[in-house]
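To: structure desk
From: M.T.
Subject: fold request, one chain
Message: Could you run this one when you get a chance? Sequence is below, nothing fancy, just the single chain.
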Amino acid sequence: MENVRGWMLSLIDWFRGGRSLLMVSVACVALSALVGCRDSVLTRQDPTGVRGSTRGEILPEAKSIHDRYRPEPVGDPPNPWVRYHVPPVMSYEDRPLSDNILGAIELADFEAAIIRAGYWPYLTGSREYTVLAVPNEPFEAYKHQAVPDLMRPARRTFLKGFVGQMILVGHWDLPTIQRKTARKGSIQVPTLAGPGYDVILKPTVFGNIEVIGRDGSVTLVGNGYPQSNGVLYVTDSILPYQ
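Reply: Done. Structure tokens follow.
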């Protein structure tokens, strides 16, 4: 009887010690994960560290919607798609790139491409990027005419490079570009597409910014939209990529 009692006490002691060890191990793993993720590029931006603002700017009108859904002829029942005016979409400067792109119906195709290429987590974080977003109409024209299978899994590597070259590393609003190019006339900027796919930002005589990539160029229209983690531009065409 004494042997059984001693064995049970030993088992209880072992369980207590093992459980404590397990709890300590779990706590260490959790702490390590927190410390490791704190500065990760894929960590979503903490809104408590962003200065609040009520300032916003209207993004380009959803032209693709108006072109696709036309009013019915006189006397016919109204088309529910066009019965009401498409409300304007705002870009708010205290929100991250991901939030403002997600809310822009005119950038729906480009948003889907960013997600498929795997870059979406970068636009939710606190590190700054400058996005050259392509509206639906030129994006769909490029997809149908040049790369019909652009969004298919087999073309993911191509899509990753194509979209990545239009996401510049850093905060490149118009004043910054003008200041950095004042002496040499242009500046080379890295992109998420990686080495070999840097772009050159070059002011034009018309006050716009020409973005020169490896396979072509595109002109930025307007001053861009401030974001809490970078800058958003809406282009009028795609940046060529091969």
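Reply (cont.): Residues 204 and 210 are 7 Å apart (CA to CA). Let me know if you need anything else for the meeting.
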